TrEMBL record, chain A:
The entry's keywords: ATP-binding, Nucleotide-binding, Transport
Name listed for the protein in its UniProt record: ABC-type quaternary amine transporter
Record organism: Agreia pratensis
Residues annotated as domain ABC transporter: 2-237
Entry-linked InterPro entries: AAA+_ATPase, ABC_osmolyte_uptake_ATP-bind, ABC_transporter-like_ATP-bd, ABC_transporter-like_CS, P-loop_NTPase
GO molecular function: ABC-type quaternary ammonium compound transporting activity; ATP binding; ATP hydrolysis activity
Enzyme Commission number, as recorded: 7.6.2.9
UniProtKB/TrEMBL annotation, chain B:
Record's protein name: Osmoprotectant transport system permease protein
Species classification: Bacteria, Bacillati, Actinomycetota, Actinomycetes, Micrococcales
Organism in which the protein naturally occurs: Agreia pratensis
One annotated GO biological process: glycine betaine transport
SUPFAM superfamilies: MetI-like
A GO CC annotation given for this chain: plasma membrane
Amino acid sequence: MIEFRQVSKRFPDGTLAVEDFSLVIPSRKTTVFVGSSGCGKTTILRMINRMIDRTAGSIEIDGEDIVGLDRVKLRRRIGYVMQNSGLLPHRKVVDNVATVPLLNGVPKREAHARALELLDTVGLDRALANRYPSQLSGGQQQRVGVARGLAADPNILLMDEPFGAVDPLVRAELQHELIRLQRELDKTVVFVTHDIDEAFLLGDQVVILQKGGVIVQKGSPTEILTAPANEFVADFIGATKGKRALHIDRRDGRDVVLDSEGRAAGVLVEGSAGTGEEVPT
Amino acid sequence: MNWVIENLPLIGQRTAEHLALSIPPIILSFIISVPIGWLANRYRWSRGVLLTVLGLLYAIPSLPLFVVLPIILGTGLRDSVNVIVALTLYGIALMVRTTADALGSVSSDVTQSATAMGFSPWTRFWKVDLPLAGPVLLAGIRVVAVSTVSLVTVGAVLGIKSLGLLFTDGLQRNIVAEVATGMVATIALALLIDFALVLVGRVLMPWTHVVSSKRVRRALPSDAGVAA
């Protein structure tokens, strides 16, 4: 469990990036921070592994104030995945994945063996192990980034817009891969994105932020969708634009789901009458 | 041509002397420039001050420097130490700016992610920043190397032994072949050291070689989906 208590961050130039931020991030769940650029979501994420130090308040991991912990050691036990993968371009894929174990003094042979297993875990061919990052596609690089974040078997995985720079098809694939991984690995994932659809897809807890790290609403995707806290949230999640206000219309014997503009958003399948088909779930 | 064949041992000896005067300044200016370049790249104030002051070193004419240094260092006028110190200073003048730029050119995505992985600042410098600055550092040290090899010859005016002595001696005794040999040998030596540096770069930075081969591959339609 990660707990923020009245945390503020003022940068040396005087900007107050985060003000009086309090939140409990439950263990073994995915918490997604979502908001427009400049809302402080990345700052909040980076305060967890002390890439950025808070200027007021306290942050505790499992009841332990991180201010008393050695930064370097703290970072080595927290996985971190970022946009553009941030892989070390001068190291082969296998060495990139093994970065943290090697820093921790794990023997090379052992660290490499584990790294190869992690390539399997994230769905990469072991043949890529001896390539350099520049020889991989964007999606493959992000997978390596995820494998690297998992290498030291951390309890916490921080993800800073990890799929922001890949094309939509690959992004969808990576998102589902992450859902699968999370089901297997059961980490405490803290995920930052500006994409509300991504937030709803991945988050057990979704936290919608406004400038200065102000929490506008937090809850499960269903809670937020059914009861947006205010105009801003309704607007942000697209409820006012009709993208999420769907209704059902019957056409050609099938139930078609339409948005408020009358455009087809999909077809209702499960338990729908008239199709005569059993839909496997 | 006869002159060359008759004087092969002399040419060999002068080349060896030239090399002995060239190599130390190249290595020393590289080593000394790393911490200064790091400092220059680290803070905004230090960059302006250090780069300007050290850049000015290059404006000092070499011959007067060869004459003044013995007085400062307490060495003899024909001591090879003078040449080594003077050329190290010139090397630093060129190399500090390159080092600062090289360290500044390392992608902040990479350095930040390295920090997030748990590299300590010291380890990160040696294992991430410095190697990734390598290609630019190599470009810089190649300029320093060629410049050093050519400047070593100036010491010949004061009688310091190098290939430069072949010019001065050849001029005095009016042997054109000797002057030409001195020039050709100096250029050949510069090229040789340059080639050696490129080779060292290839061995120490295998990933740079890979990247360029990928650019060729990426032009193929079959690889169209590969993102940078």
